[in-house]
Amino acid sequence: MKKTLSLLALSTLIISSNAGTDNFNDDVIEAKQISNVTEESLNSIPSKKITLYQQYSVHLNDANANKKVEEQKPVEAEAEVSVGYNQKEIGILIKWKDDTKSVQPAMTTTKFGDGVSVQFPVKYGKGTTLAYIGMGDTKHPVMTYLKKAVEGRDYQKAFIAEGFGSLTEISEKGFSFTMKYDDTNKQWIAFIKKPIKTADLNLASGLVPVSFAIWDGDSLNRDGNKVISNWKFIKMDKMKTDPAYLKYVSWGYGDIGNPERGKELMIQNGCNGCHRFADQTSAPEGLAPNLSKIGGYSNPVYLRESIVNPNDVVIRNLNINRHYNKSAEKDKNGAYPNNDMYTWYIKDNKGNLTSKMPPYTHLSEQDLKDIVAYLKTLK
Ligand code: HEC
Protein backbone atom coordinates (compact mmCIF):
# COMPACT_ATOMS: atom_id res chain seq x y z
CA MET A 1 0.00 0.00 0.00
CA LYS A 2 2.73 2.35 0.99
CA LYS A 3 4.52 1.73 -2.30
CA THR A 4 1.43 2.45 -4.42
CA LEU A 5 0.89 5.69 -2.60
CA SER A 6 4.37 6.98 -3.17
CA LEU A 7 4.20 6.02 -6.84
CA LEU A 8 0.97 7.93 -7.15
CA ALA A 9 2.50 10.93 -5.48
CA LEU A 10 5.43 10.74 -7.87
CA SER A 11 3.28 10.60 -10.99
CA THR A 12 1.26 13.60 -9.78
CA LEU A 13 4.52 15.43 -9.30
CA ILE A 14 5.69 14.65 -12.82
CA ILE A 15 2.41 15.72 -14.37
CA SER A 16 2.20 18.94 -12.41
CA SER A 17 5.75 19.90 -13.32
CA ASN A 18 4.90 20.28 -17.00
CA ALA A 19 1.14 20.90 -17.02
CA GLY A 20 -0.30 24.38 -17.09
CA THR A 21 -0.36 25.07 -13.39
CA ASP A 22 -1.82 28.54 -13.84
CA ASN A 23 -4.27 29.56 -11.22
CA PHE A 24 -7.38 31.54 -12.19
CA ASN A 25 -6.41 34.15 -9.61
CA ASP A 26 -3.27 34.85 -11.67
CA ASP A 27 -5.65 36.26 -14.28
CA VAL A 28 -7.66 38.39 -11.87
CA ILE A 29 -6.85 42.08 -11.50
CA GLU A 30 -8.36 43.52 -8.32
CA ALA A 31 -9.75 46.98 -9.00
CA LYS A 32 -10.34 49.48 -6.22
CA GLN A 33 -13.06 52.03 -5.86
CA ILE A 34 -11.56 55.53 -5.65
CA SER A 35 -13.11 58.98 -5.49
CA ASN A 36 -10.99 60.50 -8.26
CA VAL A 37 -9.74 58.46 -11.19
CA THR A 38 -6.30 60.00 -11.75
CA GLU A 39 -2.88 58.61 -12.54
CA GLU A 40 -1.75 59.64 -9.07
CA SER A 41 -4.54 57.83 -7.26
CA LEU A 42 -3.95 54.69 -9.34
CA ASN A 43 -0.29 54.71 -8.34
CA SER A 44 -1.33 53.92 -4.79
CA ILE A 45 -3.39 50.85 -5.79
CA PRO A 46 -1.47 47.54 -5.65
CA SER A 47 -0.57 46.48 -9.20
CA LYS A 48 -0.84 43.09 -10.84
CA LYS A 49 2.02 41.65 -12.86
CA ILE A 50 0.91 40.24 -16.20
CA THR A 51 2.88 38.47 -18.93
CA LEU A 52 2.35 39.12 -22.62
CA TYR A 53 3.45 36.67 -25.33
CA GLN A 54 4.16 37.04 -29.03
CA GLN A 55 1.06 36.88 -31.18
CA TYR A 56 1.97 33.99 -33.45
CA SER A 57 -1.30 32.54 -34.74
CA VAL A 58 -1.53 34.96 -37.64
CA HIS A 59 1.51 36.22 -39.57
CA LEU A 60 2.08 39.62 -41.17
CA ASN A 61 2.80 39.98 -44.86
CA ASP A 62 6.30 41.34 -44.17
CA ALA A 63 9.20 38.86 -44.12
CA ASN A 64 11.55 41.39 -42.52
CA ALA A 65 9.23 42.20 -39.63
CA ASN A 66 8.42 38.50 -39.15
CA LYS A 67 12.12 37.66 -39.00
CA LYS A 68 12.50 40.25 -36.23
CA VAL A 69 9.71 38.49 -34.34
CA GLU A 70 11.69 35.24 -34.52
CA GLU A 71 14.78 37.07 -33.22
CA GLN A 72 12.97 39.21 -30.63
CA LYS A 73 14.42 38.77 -27.15
CA PRO A 74 13.00 38.34 -24.64
CA VAL A 75 10.04 36.71 -26.36
CA GLU A 76 7.62 37.86 -23.72
CA ALA A 77 7.00 41.13 -21.91
CA GLU A 78 5.87 41.90 -18.42
CA ALA A 79 3.60 44.72 -17.42
CA GLU A 80 2.32 46.07 -14.13
CA VAL A 81 -1.37 46.94 -14.21
CA SER A 82 -3.53 48.82 -11.69
CA VAL A 83 -7.23 49.53 -12.06
CA GLY A 84 -9.38 52.08 -10.22
CA TYR A 85 -12.99 53.09 -10.74
CA ASN A 86 -15.98 54.96 -9.39
CA GLN A 87 -19.62 55.36 -10.43
CA LYS A 88 -18.60 57.40 -13.46
CA GLU A 89 -15.13 56.43 -14.63
CA ILE A 90 -12.58 53.68 -14.87
CA GLY A 91 -8.81 54.17 -15.08
CA ILE A 92 -6.04 51.71 -15.93
CA LEU A 93 -2.35 52.36 -15.32
CA ILE A 94 0.07 50.21 -17.31
CA LYS A 95 3.85 50.15 -16.81
CA TRP A 96 6.30 48.09 -18.81
CA LYS A 97 10.07 47.99 -19.23
CA ASP A 98 11.53 48.92 -22.59
CA ASP A 99 15.24 49.74 -22.87
CA THR A 100 14.79 51.34 -26.27
CA LYS A 101 12.28 54.16 -26.50
CA SER A 102 10.91 54.21 -30.06
CA VAL A 103 8.83 57.12 -31.27
CA GLN A 104 7.53 56.86 -34.81
CA PRO A 105 8.90 59.75 -36.91
CA ALA A 106 6.23 61.80 -38.66
CA MET A 107 7.00 60.81 -42.23
CA THR A 108 8.04 57.20 -42.61
CA THR A 109 6.66 53.76 -43.21
CA THR A 110 9.75 51.83 -42.19
CA LYS A 111 10.16 52.93 -38.55
CA PHE A 112 7.62 52.15 -35.90
CA GLY A 113 6.77 53.58 -32.51
CA ASP A 114 6.15 51.75 -29.23
CA GLY A 115 2.51 51.37 -28.37
CA VAL A 116 -0.05 49.78 -26.11
CA SER A 117 -3.68 48.74 -26.37
CA VAL A 118 -6.42 47.73 -23.98
CA GLN A 119 -9.30 45.63 -25.22
CA PHE A 120 -12.72 44.74 -23.80
CA PRO A 121 -15.38 42.47 -25.29
CA VAL A 122 -18.46 44.53 -26.15
CA LYS A 123 -20.60 41.76 -24.62
CA TYR A 124 -19.62 39.53 -21.72
CA GLY A 125 -21.26 37.88 -18.74
CA LYS A 126 -23.55 34.90 -18.31
CA GLY A 127 -24.04 32.89 -21.50
CA THR A 128 -21.44 34.80 -23.53
CA THR A 129 -18.36 32.93 -24.73
CA LEU A 130 -14.92 34.56 -24.85
CA ALA A 131 -13.91 36.54 -27.94
CA TYR A 132 -10.90 35.91 -30.16
CA ILE A 133 -7.98 37.56 -28.40
CA GLY A 134 -6.66 39.09 -31.66
CA MET A 135 -9.20 41.91 -31.94
CA GLY A 136 -12.40 39.93 -31.64
CA ASP A 137 -14.45 38.10 -34.25
CA THR A 138 -17.77 38.51 -36.05
CA LYS A 139 -19.80 37.05 -33.19
CA HIS A 140 -17.77 38.79 -30.49
CA PRO A 141 -16.91 42.40 -31.34
CA VAL A 142 -14.37 44.03 -29.03
CA MET A 143 -13.66 47.62 -28.08
CA THR A 144 -9.98 48.39 -28.54
CA TYR A 145 -8.24 51.46 -27.14
CA LEU A 146 -4.92 52.19 -28.75
CA LYS A 147 -2.04 54.49 -27.87
CA LYS A 148 1.11 54.88 -29.97
CA ALA A 149 4.26 56.97 -29.58
CA VAL A 150 4.20 59.12 -32.73
CA GLU A 151 6.29 62.24 -33.22
CA GLY A 152 4.39 65.52 -32.98
CA ARG A 153 1.05 63.82 -32.60
CA ASP A 154 -1.18 62.72 -29.78
CA TYR A 155 -2.05 59.35 -31.31
CA GLN A 156 -4.92 57.75 -29.41
CA LYS A 157 -7.79 55.87 -30.93
CA ALA A 158 -10.86 53.84 -30.00
CA PHE A 159 -12.15 51.12 -32.31
CA ILE A 160 -14.81 48.51 -32.47
CA ALA A 161 -13.17 45.48 -34.06
CA GLU A 162 -14.52 42.20 -35.38
CA GLY A 163 -11.18 40.60 -36.15
CA PHE A 164 -7.87 41.62 -37.69
CA GLY A 165 -8.45 44.18 -40.41
CA SER A 166 -12.07 45.01 -39.55
CA LEU A 167 -11.91 48.15 -37.45
CA THR A 168 -14.46 50.91 -37.10
CA GLU A 169 -13.11 53.99 -35.39
CA ILE A 170 -15.43 55.57 -32.87
CA SER A 171 -15.16 58.81 -30.98
CA GLU A 172 -15.76 58.36 -27.29
CA LYS A 173 -16.44 61.36 -25.11
CA GLY A 174 -14.35 61.43 -21.95
CA PHE A 175 -11.77 58.92 -23.17
CA SER A 176 -8.08 59.80 -22.85
CA PHE A 177 -4.93 57.72 -23.23
CA THR A 178 -1.49 59.04 -22.33
CA MET A 179 1.93 57.41 -22.62
CA LYS A 180 5.19 58.75 -21.24
CA TYR A 181 8.70 57.36 -21.05
CA ASP A 182 10.41 57.22 -17.67
CA ASP A 183 14.13 57.54 -18.48
CA THR A 184 15.30 56.65 -14.97
CA ASN A 185 13.55 53.28 -14.86
CA LYS A 186 13.59 52.72 -18.61
CA GLN A 187 9.91 52.07 -18.71
CA TRP A 188 6.73 53.32 -20.37
CA ILE A 189 3.86 54.51 -18.23
CA ALA A 190 0.50 54.56 -19.95
CA PHE A 191 -2.74 55.74 -18.42
CA ILE A 192 -6.19 55.25 -19.90
CA LYS A 193 -9.28 56.85 -18.45
CA LYS A 194 -12.80 56.49 -19.79
CA PRO A 195 -16.44 56.53 -18.75
CA ILE A 196 -17.41 53.28 -17.02
CA LYS A 197 -20.52 53.15 -19.21
CA THR A 198 -21.05 54.31 -22.77
CA ALA A 199 -23.61 53.41 -25.44
CA ASP A 200 -21.12 50.84 -26.80
CA LEU A 201 -19.63 49.37 -23.65
CA ASN A 202 -20.80 48.88 -20.09
CA LEU A 203 -17.98 48.04 -17.68
CA ALA A 204 -19.99 48.39 -14.48
CA SER A 205 -19.83 44.74 -13.49
CA GLY A 206 -18.12 42.55 -10.91
CA LEU A 207 -15.97 40.64 -13.42
CA VAL A 208 -14.89 42.33 -16.65
CA PRO A 209 -12.70 40.60 -19.28
CA VAL A 210 -9.81 42.75 -20.48
CA SER A 211 -6.67 42.08 -22.51
CA PHE A 212 -3.52 43.99 -23.33
CA ALA A 213 -1.12 44.31 -26.24
CA ILE A 214 2.30 45.98 -26.46
CA TRP A 215 4.20 46.93 -29.60
CA ASP A 216 7.98 47.29 -29.57
CA GLY A 217 8.83 49.70 -32.39
CA ASP A 218 12.48 48.71 -32.22
CA SER A 219 11.58 45.13 -33.22
CA LEU A 220 9.56 46.48 -36.18
CA ASN A 221 6.40 45.54 -34.30
CA ARG A 222 3.19 46.81 -35.86
CA ASP A 223 -0.33 45.56 -36.52
CA GLY A 224 -0.50 41.89 -35.54
CA ASN A 225 3.21 41.66 -34.68
CA LYS A 226 3.03 42.44 -30.98
CA VAL A 227 2.97 40.76 -27.60
CA ILE A 228 -0.49 40.07 -26.20
CA SER A 229 -1.98 38.80 -22.98
CA ASN A 230 -4.79 36.29 -22.61
CA TRP A 231 -8.13 37.49 -21.25
CA LYS A 232 -7.61 38.87 -17.76
CA PHE A 233 -10.53 39.68 -15.47
CA ILE A 234 -10.99 42.96 -13.66
CA LYS A 235 -12.69 42.29 -10.36
CA MET A 236 -14.60 45.32 -9.13
CA ASP A 237 -14.76 44.97 -5.38
CA LYS A 238 -18.03 46.89 -4.95
CA MET A 239 -19.98 45.28 -7.80
CA LYS A 240 -21.75 41.97 -8.24
CA THR A 241 -20.23 39.02 -10.08
CA ASP A 242 -22.47 36.51 -11.78
CA PRO A 243 -21.50 33.11 -10.31
CA ALA A 244 -22.34 31.28 -13.57
CA TYR A 245 -19.99 33.54 -15.53
CA LEU A 246 -17.23 33.12 -12.97
CA LYS A 247 -17.64 29.35 -13.20
CA TYR A 248 -17.49 29.49 -17.00
CA VAL A 249 -14.35 31.65 -17.34
CA SER A 250 -12.46 29.86 -14.57
CA TRP A 251 -12.81 26.44 -16.25
CA GLY A 252 -9.59 24.53 -16.91
CA TYR A 253 -7.06 26.25 -14.63
CA GLY A 254 -4.65 24.16 -12.56
CA ASP A 255 -3.72 20.58 -13.35
CA ILE A 256 -6.53 19.41 -15.55
CA GLY A 257 -4.85 16.68 -17.53
CA ASN A 258 -1.85 15.00 -19.01
CA PRO A 259 -0.15 17.20 -21.62
CA GLU A 260 1.88 14.34 -23.13
CA ARG A 261 -1.29 12.41 -23.81
CA GLY A 262 -2.84 15.62 -25.15
CA LYS A 263 -0.09 15.95 -27.74
CA GLU A 264 -0.54 12.33 -28.81
CA LEU A 265 -4.29 12.89 -29.13
CA MET A 266 -3.68 15.91 -31.34
CA ILE A 267 -1.53 13.84 -33.66
CA GLN A 268 -4.03 10.94 -33.67
CA ASN A 269 -6.86 13.34 -34.50
CA GLY A 270 -5.01 14.96 -37.36
CA CYS A 271 -4.75 18.46 -35.85
CA ASN A 272 -1.23 18.60 -37.30
CA GLY A 273 -2.67 18.18 -40.80
CA CYS A 274 -3.74 21.84 -40.63
CA HIS A 275 -1.91 23.37 -37.65
CA ARG A 276 1.79 23.77 -36.95
CA PHE A 277 2.90 23.40 -33.31
CA ALA A 278 6.09 22.33 -31.48
CA ASP A 279 7.89 19.76 -33.67
CA GLN A 280 4.77 19.24 -35.81
CA THR A 281 5.60 21.33 -38.86
CA SER A 282 4.33 19.37 -41.83
CA ALA A 283 1.23 21.54 -42.42
CA PRO A 284 1.89 24.50 -44.74
CA GLU A 285 2.31 27.78 -42.83
CA GLY A 286 -0.91 29.81 -43.10
CA LEU A 287 -3.27 26.88 -43.71
CA ALA A 288 -4.61 27.34 -40.16
CA PRO A 289 -3.50 29.39 -37.12
CA ASN A 290 -0.02 28.47 -35.95
CA LEU A 291 -0.46 26.98 -32.47
CA SER A 292 3.23 27.12 -31.41
CA LYS A 293 2.61 29.91 -28.88
CA ILE A 294 -1.13 29.58 -28.34
CA GLY A 295 -0.84 28.75 -24.62
CA GLY A 296 0.58 32.16 -23.75
CA TYR A 297 -2.44 34.14 -24.88
CA SER A 298 -5.40 31.77 -24.67
CA ASN A 299 -7.63 30.96 -21.72
CA PRO A 300 -8.37 27.26 -21.14
CA VAL A 301 -12.12 27.59 -21.78
CA TYR A 302 -11.43 29.38 -25.08
CA LEU A 303 -9.19 26.51 -26.21
CA ARG A 304 -11.82 23.98 -25.25
CA GLU A 305 -14.47 25.80 -27.30
CA SER A 306 -12.13 26.17 -30.27
CA ILE A 307 -12.01 22.38 -30.40
CA VAL A 308 -15.65 21.42 -29.83
CA ASN A 309 -17.32 24.42 -31.47
CA PRO A 310 -15.01 26.04 -34.06
CA ASN A 311 -17.91 28.08 -35.50
CA ASP A 312 -18.37 30.13 -32.36
CA VAL A 313 -15.12 32.06 -32.81
CA VAL A 314 -14.05 32.12 -36.46
CA ILE A 315 -10.65 33.72 -36.92
CA ARG A 316 -10.01 35.88 -39.94
CA ASN A 317 -6.48 35.61 -41.20
CA LEU A 318 -4.54 38.81 -41.58
CA ASN A 319 -3.18 38.52 -45.08
CA ILE A 320 -4.82 35.91 -47.22
CA ASN A 321 -3.87 37.95 -50.28
CA ARG A 322 -0.28 36.84 -50.01
CA HIS A 323 -1.33 33.39 -51.20
CA TYR A 324 -2.10 33.47 -54.91
CA ASN A 325 -3.44 30.56 -56.87
CA LYS A 326 -0.89 30.45 -59.66
CA SER A 327 -2.51 27.52 -61.40
CA ALA A 328 -5.71 29.53 -62.00
CA GLU A 329 -6.26 31.99 -64.82
CA LYS A 330 -5.24 35.62 -64.33
CA ASP A 331 -8.00 38.19 -64.08
CA LYS A 332 -8.41 41.15 -66.45
CA ASN A 333 -5.75 43.11 -64.52
CA GLY A 334 -3.27 40.30 -64.93
CA ALA A 335 -3.43 39.19 -61.28
CA TYR A 336 -3.90 35.65 -60.01
CA PRO A 337 -6.94 35.06 -57.74
CA ASN A 338 -6.44 34.26 -54.06
CA ASN A 339 -5.78 30.70 -53.14
CA ASP A 340 -8.90 29.74 -51.16
CA MET A 341 -6.97 27.02 -49.40
CA TYR A 342 -5.59 29.73 -47.09
CA THR A 343 -8.94 31.26 -46.18
CA TRP A 344 -9.90 29.83 -42.82
CA TYR A 345 -13.65 29.93 -43.29
CA ILE A 346 -16.44 29.66 -45.81
CA LYS A 347 -18.67 32.71 -46.13
CA ASP A 348 -22.28 32.22 -47.17
CA ASN A 349 -24.30 34.84 -49.05
CA LYS A 350 -25.66 36.23 -45.77
CA GLY A 351 -22.11 36.88 -44.57
CA ASN A 352 -22.09 34.04 -41.99
CA LEU A 353 -18.67 32.48 -41.49
CA THR A 354 -18.21 28.72 -41.09
CA SER A 355 -14.82 27.51 -39.92
CA LYS A 356 -12.94 25.03 -42.06
CA MET A 357 -12.04 23.22 -38.86
CA PRO A 358 -14.41 20.32 -38.15
CA PRO A 359 -16.01 20.26 -34.66
CA TYR A 360 -14.34 17.57 -32.53
CA THR A 361 -17.42 16.55 -30.58
CA HIS A 362 -16.44 12.89 -30.26
CA LEU A 363 -13.62 13.62 -27.81
CA SER A 364 -14.23 12.61 -24.20
CA GLU A 365 -14.09 15.13 -21.37
CA GLN A 366 -10.68 13.79 -20.34
CA ASP A 367 -9.38 13.92 -23.93
CA LEU A 368 -10.35 17.59 -24.10
CA LYS A 369 -8.69 18.32 -20.78
CA ASP A 370 -5.49 16.57 -21.88
CA ILE A 371 -5.42 18.51 -25.17
CA VAL A 372 -6.06 21.85 -23.42
CA ALA A 373 -3.35 21.00 -20.84
CA TYR A 374 -0.96 20.42 -23.75
CA LEU A 375 -1.95 23.58 -25.64
CA LYS A 376 -1.38 25.57 -22.43
CA THR A 377 2.27 24.45 -22.40
CA LEU A 378 2.87 25.99 -25.87
CA LYS A 379 4.27 29.46 -25.26
C1 HEC B 1 -9.10 20.94 -41.55
C2 HEC B 1 -8.12 21.74 -40.88
C3 HEC B 1 -8.08 21.74 -39.35
C4 HEC B 1 -7.98 20.66 -38.49
C5 HEC B 1 -7.88 19.20 -38.84
C6 HEC B 1 -7.95 21.22 -37.16
N1 HEC B 1 -8.04 22.59 -37.20
FE1 HEC B 1 -8.01 23.87 -35.65
N2 HEC B 1 -8.38 25.45 -36.87
C7 HEC B 1 -8.44 25.36 -38.26
C8 HEC B 1 -8.75 26.66 -38.80
C9 HEC B 1 -8.88 27.00 -40.27
C10 HEC B 1 -8.87 27.54 -37.70
C11 HEC B 1 -9.18 29.04 -37.75
C12 HEC B 1 -10.65 29.29 -37.99
C13 HEC B 1 -11.42 29.17 -36.73
O1 HEC B 1 -11.37 30.10 -35.93
O2 HEC B 1 -12.06 28.12 -36.49
C14 HEC B 1 -8.63 26.75 -36.49
C15 HEC B 1 -8.60 27.23 -35.18
C16 HEC B 1 -8.14 26.52 -34.09
C17 HEC B 1 -7.86 27.08 -32.79
C18 HEC B 1 -7.93 28.54 -32.39
C19 HEC B 1 -6.56 29.16 -32.67
C20 HEC B 1 -6.34 30.58 -32.20
O3 HEC B 1 -5.34 31.19 -32.63
O4 HEC B 1 -7.10 31.11 -31.38
C21 HEC B 1 -7.44 26.04 -31.99
C22 HEC B 1 -7.03 26.13 -30.53
C23 HEC B 1 -7.47 24.85 -32.79
N3 HEC B 1 -7.89 25.17 -34.06
C24 HEC B 1 -7.13 23.59 -32.31
C25 HEC B 1 -7.26 22.41 -33.06
C26 HEC B 1 -7.11 21.08 -32.51
C27 HEC B 1 -6.75 20.79 -31.07
C28 HEC B 1 -7.34 20.21 -33.54
C29 HEC B 1 -7.38 18.70 -33.48
C30 HEC B 1 -8.21 18.12 -32.43
C31 HEC B 1 -7.61 21.01 -34.74
N4 HEC B 1 -7.56 22.33 -34.39
C32 HEC B 1 -7.84 20.48 -35.98
C33 HEC B 1 -8.24 24.23 -39.01
C34 HEC B 1 -8.13 22.94 -38.54
Question: What does this protein structure show overall?
Answer:
The chain has two domains: 19-249, Immunoglobulin-like (Sandwich); 259-328 and 336-377, Orthogonal Bundle (Cytochrome Bc1 Complex, Chain D, domain 2). Helix 6 (300-308) crosses helix 7. It contains seven helices and 15 strands. It is α+β, with helices and mostly antiparallel strands. The strands form two sheets. Strands 1-3-2-12-11-13 form a six-stranded mixed β-barrel. The chain has a two-stranded antiparallel sheet with strand order 14-15. It is globular, with a radius of gyration of 22 Å. The chain starts with a helix and ends with a helix. Helix content is 18%, strand content 26%. The protein binds heme C. Heme C binds next to helix 6.
Main features:
Immunoglobulin-like, Cytochrome Bc1 Complex, Chain D, domain 2, 2 domains, six-stranded mixed beta barrel, 7 helices, disordered N terminus, binds heme C
